[in-house]
Structures are given as structure tokens and as C-alpha cells.
Write a structure and sequence with these properties.
The protein is mainly alpha-helical. It has 3 domains: 190 residues, Growth Hormone, Chain: A (Up-down Bundle), CATH 1.20.1250; 57 residues; 239 residues, MFS general substrate transporter like domains (Growth Hormone, Chain: A). It contains 18 helices and no strands.
């Protein structure tokens, strides 16, 4: 191996700024879509089912294609795949912005999912090829994690401004177009092309099996969130498991597989997938309860609730920055990761103390601690996974990392979301005043927003009593989810302590060029 200067130059830093723009815009798109979906439903006269597809089809498609796109990026080149994805994202965004029917909007959101599946695997793969000094690479990956989070938080605010100016809800999809065009112009000059020169031909069968392994599981879990456990959701999850088994069998039978299963056999790498899943399970499982409580339980205006919620991403960025600096000073990655889980656990424990009269402050303290710890954990997990994989497998490694997050998100909304809804509904049923009519009580059991709306129409003291019961039930739902989340995060800390205890202090830069070709011990060439 020849010696080389691996310290990043100004060109790599400028390239990172381009990649950070991509990640931020992807987050903005998600946040803006959540803001506009109700107005879109009204304008396009969408059914409840169509509304759900507008909300979820992006995630379904993206999650299903992550593994396939990661393998494709390692083969055709990560910059090329990123540029194709950016062009597709901009085009699909324009179609969505001028959609005149629900069907066209759903199709455009699906196309955005296809393009979105190229972004994070390509970004992480390029960072692996651009930044060889561990501290610089870790900081770059941390910046992308923060970018997605900040984008998701400010997306509703930017979307709200566009809605106010244009009065056209589909205009929110125009937000990402200028940035993606800028990527197409600047990326050609600032981003290097990184590919595996010995990559095999792209295996369409394996790609199809990977989609079949992830898509039905995510669909089944999200269906459980909206409609409860039923034959369709169970069948979808089982079908995903069958496709996953077929995918593994095929990878083991190929001399040059789409995904080198050595990555999954490596304890640090496989633990990273589990840790990503656990973090996102808690983070996304709690998020819907957060916004519902701020607006209904704490009585904040939606715009004020959005501004209050900005505290979480700000704290997360500060925490990630601090962890990156500590790692640069020689603190072990595993130690910092465990610390992230500990801080997130404190946040969930704080939520167990929320009551109907607490207001927004304690909820936001808990949410901010959760965001800070989760941000540190996911940033360090992503860096560890990308660093563990051979350089020519970096995009595939990034895809597996993101797939763990998507599965964790879907599972969290299905499990923790269902737990929170069940606790809320049971509490309202038990404590509602006898004077509340049965039809009103049925509506009140659904959500706290529906309960408060129904309470406002009740005469006498029954309305005030029902509103108080709903607020108490919402707080108790947060309490129970806080306990479940804390237990999950403690399990994550244990996994991190066992699997990451030997991670080195990456204070010194790498001095040798990584090998090219297949580095896994399972090579059969």
C-alpha cells in the first residue's frame, strides 16, 4: 500500500456542503408534506385512503429501494447515482407541485421515494470516499444527520410561508427544486466519482427480493398503526419475512452478491443496524404524541407549537457537535454512543412525569433530551457502520444503515403509537362523565383533538369535565410511552456497551490507502 495524504482539502469541504444541502432538502420535503396534507386533501377532494397514500407512499417506496440503490451506487458510481436521483427528485417535485388530481400526486410522491432512496446511500458512500481521516469523516456524517433533522423541523415553517404567499398547497413541493438543480450543477465539479472497479453486474432478482423484503414489512407496520392488527397487516409482515429469507439464500448462492452478507456477520455492523432500529423506534413512536399534546394538551396554536418544537433539533445539533469534538479529542466512539443512549433515556423518563397541568415545558425538555441523545447515537452508529465496511461497499453499508432506521420508524409508530392510543382511549372510557352521550364519547376516545372539539359543544359542566379527562388521558399516554421508550433505550445502551466496547479512539488520521476490490473474508473469487 502506498502512503498518501488523506486529509480533506477545500474541495472536499465544498463537496460536503453540497451533500449537506441534499440531506437538508430531503428533510424539508418531508416536513412540508406533513404540513400541507390537510389542505391538499381539501383542494384535491381526496378520500381518507388517498390521504394516507400521499403521506406514506414516499416512505414505502424509499424504504423498499434503499438496499437495491446502495448496491447500484457501489457499481455504477455514487456520484452518478446521486445526480440521477437529484434529477429525478427535482422532476417529481415539479410534477407534484402542479398535480391536479390525487392519483397524479400519489404517483409523484412515489417517484420522489424512488429518487429519495438514492440520496442517503450515495451521500454516505461519497463521504467514505472523500474523508479518510476518521475525525473528519465522523464530523461529515454527523452534519448530514443534523441536516436531515433540521430540514424536517423547518420544513413546516417554510411550507407555511409558501402557503401564505401562494394559497396553493402543492407549492410546498417546489422548495427542493432549486437545491437539486444546484446539486446537478455543482456536484459535477465538487464531488468525486467513487465506485467499485470490480463490481459485478447489477442483479435484478436480488434487487427485487430486497424490495419484497422491506416494502411489505413497512406497509404492514404502518397499516397496524392506522387500522390495528389484522389479517392484511400480518400477511404483509410475513410476506416480507419470506422475501427476506429468499434474499439471504440468493446472496449466499452468488459468488458476487448484491449485498455482501459479511457486512451482516460483522458484529459491529449488525449491531449498528439494531441500534438504528431501536433509536428510531422510540423517536418516531413518540413524535406523533408530541405534536398532539403541544397543540391539544398544552393548548398551543399550531404555529407556536411548530416554533416550540424547533428546540429539539437545535439541541440535537449542539449535542452532535459536542460529541464530535469529544471524539476528536480521543473519547471512544462506544463511550459516546452509550452516553447518547443514556441522555435519550433521561428524556423518556422525564416524560413519565408529565401531567395534565404540566404544560409544554417538561414535554419539550424530555423531547429535547431524547433528540440530543438520539442524534448523537445515530450519527456515531452511521459513522461506525460506514467505517467498518470496505470502502467499495460504503454505499451498500449506508443503505443498510438507513434501512434499519426506516424499519425502526415504522415499528415505532405501529407499536408505541398503538400503545399510546390504547392508553388514551381506555382512560377516556373509564373517567368520562356519565352525562356524555355515547356518540360523543366514541369520538372523544379517538384523539384528544376530537375530544376537545366534542367537549366544546357539550352543555353545562360536562364539556369542561370531558376536556379535563382527555388532557389527563393524553398525559398518561405519554407517561406509558415514556416508560416503554426508556426500557427500549436502556436495551440499546446494553447492545452498544457489548458491541461497541472495542471501538478505537480515532484521534490519528489514516495513513494508508484502503484496498480496492472485495475485502470481505467471504470472497470466493
Amino acid at each position: 500500500m502506498r502512503q498518501l495524504n488523506t486529509t480533506a482539502t477545500g474541495r472536499e469541504r465544498a463537496g460536503l456542503a453540497v451533500l449537506l444541502l441534499v440531506c437538508t432538502l430531503a428533510g424539508v420535503d418531508l416536513g412540508a408534506n406533513l404540513l400541507a396534507v390537510n389542505e391538499l386533501t381539501r383542494q384535491l377532494d381526496m378520500s381518507a385512503t388517498q390521504k394516507l397514500w400521499v403521506q406514506d407512499v414516499y416512505t414505502f417506496v424509499m424504504a423498499g429501494l434503499l438496499v437495491a440503490m446502495g448496491g447500484l451506487g457501489d457499481r455504477i458510481g455514487r456520484r452518478r447515482l446521486l445526480m440521477l436521483g437529484a434529477a429525478g427528485f427535482a422532476t417529481a417535485s415539479l410534477v407534484a407541485a402542479f398535480a391536479t388530481s390525487a392519483a397524479l400526486l400519489i404517483a409523484a410522491r412515489a417517484a420522489l421515494g424512488v429518487a429519495g432512496a438514492t440520496l442517503m446511500p450515495s451521500t454516505l458512500g461519497l463521504i467514505r470516499g472523500m474523508f479518510h481521516v476518521p475525525g473528519q469523516r465522523r464530523a461529515a456524517i454527523a452534519a448530514t444527520v443534523a441536516g436531515v433533522t433540521v430540514g424536517s423541523a423547518v420544513g413546516p415553517l417554510i411550507g407555511g410561508v409558501l402557503l401564505a404567499v401562494t394559497a396553493q398547497p402543492t407549492s410546498v413541493y417546489l422548495i427542493s427544486v432549486p437545491g437539486m438543480v444546484a446539486l446537478l450543477v455543482l456536484g459535477r465539479f465538487l464531488l468525486p466519482e467513487v465506485r467499485n472497479p470490480e463490481a459485478p453486474p447489477f442483479d435484478l432478482v436480488s434487487a427485487a427480493l430486497s424490495v419484497g423484503a422491506v416494502f411489505p414489512v413497512v406497509y404492514g407496520l404502518k397499516t397496524m398503526t392506522g387500522s390495528g392488527v389484522g389479517p392484511l397487516s400480518i400477511a404483509a409482515v410475513l410476506a416480507g419475512g419470506a422475501f427476506a429469507s429468499a434474499f439471504v439464500v440468493r446472496q449466499l448462492s452468488l459468488q458476487r452478491p448484491l449485498i455482501d452478507l459479511w457486512l451482516l456477520r460483522h458484529p459491529t455492523f449488525s449491531a449498528g443496524i439494531v441500534l438504528n432500529l431501536l433509536v428510531m423506534f422510540v423517536l418516531m413512536g413518540f413524535s406523533p404524541l408530541l405534536m398532539e399534546y403541544l397543540q391539544a394538551g398544552a393548548g398551543l396554536d399550531p404555529a407556536v407549537a411548530g416554533l416550540v418544537q424547533l428546540a429539539s433539533p437545535v439541541v440535537m445539533v449542539l449535542a452532535i457537535t459536542g460529541a464530535t469534538l469529544l471524539a476528536k479529542r480521543g473519547v471512544r466512539t462506544g463511550t459516546l454512543m452509550i452516553g447518547g443512549f443514556a441522555v435519550a433515556t433521561l428524556g423518556m423518563l422525564a416524560l413519565t412525569q408529565v401531567t395534565a397541568g404540566t404544560g409544554a415545558l417538561l414535554v419539550m425538555v424530555g423531547a429535547s433530551l431524547l433528540a440530543a441523545g438520539a442524534g448523537v447515537a445515530t450519527a456515531l452508529v452511521a459513522d461506525t457502520m460506514v467505517a467498518t465496511a470496505p470502502q467499495e461497499k460504503a454505499a451498500a453499508a449506508g443503505a443498510l444503515s438507513e434501512t434499519g432506521k426506516e424499519l425502526g420508524s415504522a415499528l415505532g409508530m405501529a407499536v408505541l403509537g398503538s400503545i399510546g392510543a390504547a392508553v388514551y382511549s381506555a382512560r377516556v372510557s373509564e373517567a368520562a362523565p356519565d352525562a356524555v352521550p355515547a356518540a360523543v364519547l366514541d369520538a372523544a376516545r379517538e384523539t384528544i383533538g376530537a375530544a376537545l372539539a366534542a367537549a366544546a359543544d357539550l352543555p353545562g359542566g360536562a364539556g369542561a369535565a370531558l376536556a379535563q379527562v382527555a388532557r389527563q388521558a393524553s398525559a398518561q399516554a405519554i407517561n406509558v410511552v415514556g416508560v416503554a421508550g426508556a426500557v427500549t433505550l436502556i436495551a440499546g445502551a446494553v447492545v452498544a456497551a457489548v458491541s461497541m466496547r472495542r471501538t478505537p479512539r480515532h484521534a490519528a488520521p489514516a495513513t494508508t490507502e484502503p484496498r480496492t476490490g472485495r475485502l470481505s473474508p467471504s470472497s470466493r473469487r
